[in-house]
Amino acid sequence: MTTYRLGMLTPSSNTCLEPVTYRLLHGTDDVTAHFARVPVTRIALDGGSDAQFDPAPMLAAARQLADARVDVIVWNGTSGSWLGVDHDRALCVAITEATGIPATTSTLALLDACAAYGVTRLGLAVPYTRDVAERIVATYAEEGLHATLAEPSGVSDNEAFARIPRADVARQIEEAAPDSHAVAVVCTNVFGAEPAAGLEPSLGIPVFDSVAATLWRALDLAGAAPVLTGHGDLLRSGSLRARFQEALAALLDATGADRTTLRLDVPDHGLHVDLTAAEALGDGIRSIRRDASLDQRRLNTVRWLEEHRAPLVQPHFRDDPHPPQALVDVYGVNAQMLSPVVRGDDMTGWISVHSMRERDWTGRDTAALAAAMGRVHDLLDTYGRYGKAHSA
Length: 392
Hints:
Blueprint: E1 4-11, H1 17-24, E2 31-38, H2 47-51, H3 55-67, E3 72-75, H4 80-83, H5 85-99, E4 103-105, H6 106-116, E5 121-125, H7 130-142, E6 146-149, H8 158-161, H9 166-176, E7 182-185, H10 193-203, E8 207-209, H11 210-222, H12 233-255, E9 259-264, E10 278-281, H13 300-308, E11 312-314, H14 325-329, E12 335-343, E13 346-355, H15 363-383
Parallel strand pairs: 1-2, 1-3, 3-4, 5-6, 5-7, 7-8
Antiparallel strand pairs: 9-10, 9-13, 11-12, 12-13
């Protein structure tokens, strides 16, 4: 059995992330977490606070973690959310150059979670002062996220973040949720993992706690294929969704199409064909990801897939089977390729490749679709109900 070792760079005054990480890993026997502390005591927008995040002490601690032969090293702090994401990207490069070990950060993990779920509108629950919170909104805007704030807690002492009651964190999450695709609890010293997971069913959107998101991405980078249940959708299904996104982006690039989508019925991962499991878009193309207005299984083209269990290649829509008129009128599609996802006796879903103009699909295009389909099948066998789900 492969054992995965996770190296965590921890703010010195943090009393949350270690116990929460252990709690999230409870019941697994193939993952261990190892922590090294670096001095961080106060969060503000000034030179003294910023100096705490100098790379030198982090690199020294990372080298010590490397002595334990960890599989990944993460900065388990959200400072990149106000210092700028490039600060974290440079830190990860420096850690990997110094240790030869892949690296990430809590901020990058949150952004990766948003990418996996196609989030462009993000609600924020933060413990910081308002000026720090507003800087985070601006930082995320630079990454293509429209962020809205719940009222910040107004705290600057890092140790005190862990004393914020869980009920207050839950209220912030609920306040940040309306009109958002997801909510993020941004701070690894806030006990947000439990309220985040608990509120997801009633809110109907994912809630990304920073500690849980950091653990998810660390497991993912280590190659652990995480499927941790009972702690929210990200730890259960985030890696599967991220791999789907990668497959669809590769298909979009290979075909030069305008949109690729994947629809699946996999209840164990909260997936239903009426909403896409993943989507990749060309420049200026409208997203179809959250449009659940059609009963997808009743569409003419989907019934054709169900009957023939073979790819449907349509250079135009003048012949049967005709797609729904909304696909043409609302989303501007004038040609498409569809391929069924078949596991066992079930047509579990399908991949769609859309073009805004009529086009003759080539053998290279259909080969790219077949390759994407093979990747989806492999992923379902690794993460899904059709294969053995790994505990982590």
